[in-house]
Amino acid sequence: MTATLVRFDGVSKSYDGRTRVVAELDLEIRRGEFLTLLGPSGSGKTTTLMMLAGFEDPTAGSITLEGARIDTVPPHRRNIGVVFQNYALFPHLSVAENLAFPLSIRRVPRAEIGRRVAAALSMVRLPGLGGRRPQQLSGGQQQRVALARALIFNPPLVLLDEPLGALDKQLREELQAEIRRIHAELGVTMVYVTHDQSEALTLSDRIAVFDQGRIQQLGTAQAVYETPANPFVAGFIGENNRLPATVLDATRLRLAEGSMLATLPHGLQAGAAALVSIRPERVLLEAAEAAPNAAAARVEEVVYLGDHCRLRMAWAGRTDFFAKLPRQQAGQVPQAGTTLRIAIPEAAIIVFPA
Amino acid sequence: MRRTNLLAAALIAPLLLLILGSFLVPVGLTLFRAVADREVVATLPETSAILAGWDGEGLPPEAAFAALAREAGAALQARRIGDLAQRLNFERTGLRTALLRVARAADRLAAPHAQSLPALDARWGERETWLLLQRAGGPTTALYLLRAMDATRTPQGEVRALPVEERLYRTLFLRTLGISLLVTALCVLLAYPVAAAIAGLRPPWSAVALTLVLIPFWSSVLVRSTAWFVLLQREGPVNGALQALGMLEAPVQMLGTRFAVVLALVHVLLPFAILPMHSVMKGLDGTFLRAAASLGANGPQRFLRVWLPLSLPGVLAGGAMVFLLSVGMYTAPALVGGDRDQMVAWFIANFMNRDVNWGMAAALSAYLLAMTGAMVGLVRVLTGGVAQAGLRG
Ligand SMILES: Nc1ncnc2c1ncn2[C@@H]1O[C@H](COP(=O)(O)OP(=O)(O)OP(=O)(O)O)[C@@H](O)[C@H]1O
Ligand SMILES: [Mg+2]
To answer: Does residue B152 form part of some domain?
Structure first.
């Protein structure tokens, strides 16, 4: 058993023969991992997933599962579980019959079907609801059933296309925890599509950030958040302040307005144009005089958000520089109009070539 | 809350009255006509009253004979005797003649009438005739309902099946049922793939296809049936084409056959099967099929276990629609069918237009109504579990 379960090799997809919705995709999915495809609407996530499930044919390239090509195998013989955004539970069957469907197709003996259906229902914490029709369940319950149905025939791989998209925030978080628990319990490989970054960060072992049909970065949640590969990833995941700059030397930049910024070695040529990205929560407020990149900044606007305050500040010649002030201690909230001394640690400055 | 309810009721009231007036009232009247028996009381009120007191033994009293002669004569003078003659003759052939003889001779008949009437027509000397007249005193009768099932009542009041050679209506109902079921089955089988294909088309084409299905509605049933009359003639295009293709040696008689009736009915009714099926299938989400495939179901399994059950409400609705319309079809069988291919509606029309026998027309209508009602009930029972399942939610 190799560590690689699925492999995309130069896979492209075009619906109209001109624009490539997915372009030269190379991707390895590891056995047992939870991989999330994250990206804006229209970036090709669903298309990628559907090519894996077999509902779309790649225009070019190959897809292998367990080392065998599957892009020519019809979907019903791929043995891949799929959870659809609108649940796709069969309305003419009861919950138990929905769960039994893949088993009876596989000619599993009746007694065993009964046992496995009961086990699946208790796995998704819906024991006793087997007799109901899907339409008699809430949205969250329906999604649990859909998840159980995609897992009950023990596929090595389960694909989930924005399964929680239709649910409200609280239910979504509850089900995220559930999915994580089930993934850990079963050790099944899951590929999960979402355009909700916090969902991706919560769930994933690795995240593949999609844009315009290409993977912009593939890595752990921490890697894509803290060391984004390009401005798109930095901007798509989490908030960031972006500032154009010019390279002075190996560890210093000059911002457009003239002030200097000390960084870690960034590897760009002196004189080159650069783009600086700074996360609001990495900005130090009320910093000591000797702190790196210390400067005075005026508070323009304060938004109180409970666990933290969001400050819009005037800094480096702009008035849209954001910083986050965590509310670790009760106390005064900074007032608009006051001036704070801020600092930006070198490690918090991400430098991209512009 | 109360106010809005009242307002709603007030707004609905005119519609309710319209439905009542245009549907329930005629149906009620028809059902009433099937059992009403008023001709004798209306035309021979005195005779009826006397017969009501008769014990049915031997012959009625002289007064009954005299009253009959007087009232029959008066009715003839007033030209009101036709309905009565028709009513009596329908129950027993020959009574029209017997009645008219008495009516015409009313002035000249000498007392005692109990002797002069039988002398004029022997039937007035028979106890059965008078029993029949007594029972026809109304206000209701089972005569028409029994006759429409090929049964009759003996003068003694027992229900009997008609002799085999006089039977007609049971066969007629079975024929109507048979033709309608065949037409329904053919329509469902033809409509299902068409509806599925249209549901699978992309937007501009699905609208085009649906319009093509609807085009027949732009012409009346009469025009479409007439078209088949032209097409199916001995020298018509169908025979011509089959001969040209070498499939026929000589022209075949197609008009006046059961085949022609079924063909015309299927053609006329097919859109009524396609539309409900299409509307159900259009609402079915394609992801159901994808889900089934992802769960391991192959093409036939996906069709049998997912698509078919989900589209079943449309099949039943379309089938019921075709059946209900087919059972009451008049034009198409009348135009292209032979004498042995006519359905109940044709007989109803004949009883109304030619025989002016409202009782029989109403009795046949009542059974037709019962038949369709039973069918609707059956479909409702069958769809009980499926109906809500088809609608996602
Ligand atoms: N069946 C199709 N025919 C033609 N174009 C399609 C089809 N399906 C998707 N597309 C196009 O392909 C592109 C990528 O679509 P895809 O559904 O993969 O995006 P996505 O990343 O899943 O977006 P979302 O987050 O909105 O679901 C889009 O521009 C879309 O319009
Ligand atoms: Mg999508």
So the answer is: yes
Give Cα separations from B253 to A323, A336, B261 (angstroms). Answer: 93, 99, 13
- Is CATH 1.25.40.10 correct for A242-353? no
State ipTM.
0.84
CB A120 within 8 A of CB A148: yes
Q: What is the pLDDT of residue B210?
A: 87
Q: Are residues B140 and B179 in the same domain?
A: no
Residue B138 inside a domain? The answer is yes
Domains contained in chain B, number:
2
Supply the pTM of this predicted model. Answer: 0.76
Nearest by Cα to A148 from A174, A173, A187, A122? A122
Please tell me the distance from the alpha carbon of residue A205 to that of residue A209, in angstroms, as a whole number. Answer: 13
Report whether B52 contacts B137 (CB < 8 A): yes
Closest alpha carbon to B144 in B327, B368, B358, B372: B358
The ranges of chain A annotated as CATH 3.40.50.300 are 4-233
- Numbered ranges of CATH 2.40.50.100 in chain A: 242-353
Q: Give the CATH number, domain containing residue B317.
A: 1.10.3720.10
Determine which of B285, B294, B303, B306 to mutate to test the interface with A (most A C-beta atoms within 10 Å): B294
As separate numbers, helices (DSSP H) first and strands (DSSP E) second, chain A gives 8, 20
Which amino acid belongs to residue B387?
A
Contact A251, A295 (CB under 8 A): no
Query: What's the Rg (C-alpha) of chain B?
Result: 29
Cβ contacts (< 8 Å) between A102 and chain B: which residues? 295-296
Phi/psi of residue A301, each to 5°? Answer: -155, 145
Which run of H or of E encompasses A7? strand A4-14
Cis amide prior to B112 (ω within 30 degrees): yes
| DSSP bridge pairs for A7 | A28, A64
Could you give the count of Cα atoms lying within 13 Å of A78 in the half-sphere of its Cβ?
Answer: 29
Q: How far is B351 from chain A (nearest CA, A)?
A: 48
Full residue range of the structural domain in which residue B96 is found? 39-102+111-166
Ligand 2 geometric centre to CA of A41 (Å): 7
My answer on whether B82 and B187 are in the same domain is no
Pairing of strands A189-194, A34-38: parallel
Q: Which two tokens stand for residue A318?
A: 């702009």
Q: Domain check: are B152 and B187 in the same one? A: no
Q: Does B305 touch chain A (CB under 8 A)?
A: yes
Nearest-CA neighbor of B289 among A198, A201, A75?
A75
From B166, B181, B210, give the residue that closes a domain.
Answer: B166
Domain spanning A4-233: which CATH class is it, in words? Answer: alpha beta
Residue B337 lies in a domain: yes
Q: pLDDT tens-digit profile of A63-89?
A: 999 989 998 899 999 999 999 988 899
Side chain identity, residue A117: V
Q: Which residue of A has its CA nearest to B384?
A: A92
Judge residue B175's burial from the number of C-beta atoms within 10 Å of its C-beta, 0-12 exposed, 13-18 middle, 19 or more buried: middle
Report how far residue B285's alpha carbon sits from residue A90's, in angstroms, rounded to the nearest whole number.
Answer: 10
What's the average model confidence in pLDDT over A308-321?
A: 89
Examine the pLDDT at B390 and tell me if it is beyond 70: no
Highest mean pLDDT among A27-36, A236-245, A269-278, B75-84: A27-36
Do B197 and B230 share a domain, yes or no? yes
Determine the residue type at A26.
D
B6 occurs within a structural domain: no
Q: For B36, which DSSP code?
A: B
Does ligand 1 lie within 6 Å of residue A47's CB atom?
A: yes
Q: Are residues B115 and B52 in the same domain?
A: yes
B190 plus B310 within the same structural domain: yes
Residue A216, pLDDT score: 94
Query: In degrees, to the nearest 5, what angle opens at C-alpha A253 toward C-alphas A247 and A258?
Result: 110
Is A149 in Cβ contact with B296 (below 8 Å)?
no
